[in-house]
Structure formats: C-alpha cells, structure tokens
Description:
The protein is an alpha+beta fold. Helix 3 packs across helix 5 (177-194). The protein is globular. It has helices at residues 5-13, 64-67, 108-126, 165-171, 177-194; strands spanning 74-75, 79-83, 92-97, 131-137, 148-154.
Amino acid sequence: MALRPDEFYDHARAAADEQLRLPLARMTGWEVSPFEAEGLRVSALRPPVLPEPPRHGEDPADCDECRSRDEGIWLDDRWRLARIPGPGVPLVLMLYPRDHYDMADLPDELAAELGVLTTHIVRHVQALPHVSRAHVYRIGDGAAHLHVWFFARPEGQSQLYGSWLPVWDDLLPEYPADVADADAAAVADALAASYGGRRPGADGQADA
C-alpha cells in the first residue's frame, strides 16, 4: 500500500534541508539538461493539499475538450487529433477521445484503438523530414478528459534527447507556424490513409 499523504510528505522532508529544499535531481547533471546545475535550487516542499482540487472537466458539462469534439487536424467517429499552437519543437499534437473518458475509464475497445492509433501517429510523425523521434506523454493531472501528447524531436538536436524535451520545447523560440501546419496536414493525411478517418476540410469534405 502506498504511503499516506502525510507519511509521504514526512518521508520527503527527512531528505530536505532546513528550508525544505531537496537536493538537485540527478537529471540536472545530464548533458541534455537545459540548465546548468550551478545556481539552481529546488523549490521548497509544500505540505499535501487534501482533498485535491478538481481537474478541469471533471463535470463533462464544463469540459472544453467535449465542446471541441468536432475540431482537429484529423477525426474519426471516436477520436480526434489536434495540433497544439506555439511550440518550440517542430510539431506538438494531442490525441483525444471525442466522448468524455479518462484513460482509466476507456472501454477495452477504445483502449485497444488507442494503442493502434498511437503507433500510427508515431510512425507518421517520425516519417516527417528532419524529425528523428516522436515522444509520447500521458499525464492527466490538469484535465479529466484523456489527452495524449506527441512531441516531434528535431533531427540532429541531441541536446533535446529524452525526458527534458517538453522543457526545451517551452524554452525554444516559437517554431514557424506555416511549417508546423504543413507537417500536421501531412501527418493527418497519412493517418487517414493508414488508419481511416479524415482530415476535416480536405478534398472538400465537411467537418464532422
């Protein structure tokens, strides 16, 4: 059984200094870290907050993702794929179920589709010129509606390897939107060809 919130906090506090600051993470010493360890310090530990505040969209009636169920660069009857604007890396996409589910709530059929869809999206992002890898993330602390992130890691940028990539994305200048739009359309067309569904507005097709 996991530690209770108070037990977890006390366990972490035991490793902190008098200002409740933990030592720097090993990750800050990796050569791909976007930060130099000298001068960095960890934020002070804060005690647990219970009950946890609700995430956005706990009530489907207030869920932005439900209101956007017909929007995206690619759609089928049960899923939609959207491009996230303003990234620093070549492309950031988000996959959502069109109906209101979190990952733990997905029916088995949709869960199986999620695995296949994720593989197809990764395949098509990595087929883009000058993209080496597609990183996939599901976190879920901010919103109750399932959303899966896809980050395109640019070719040759070995400093952007690994789990620091979303931080680098936030630090880099905004990637040219017209290039990202074209690459997003290429991924959507390839997904429609390999998996099904459609790119809204392509070839005169109406949105769902």
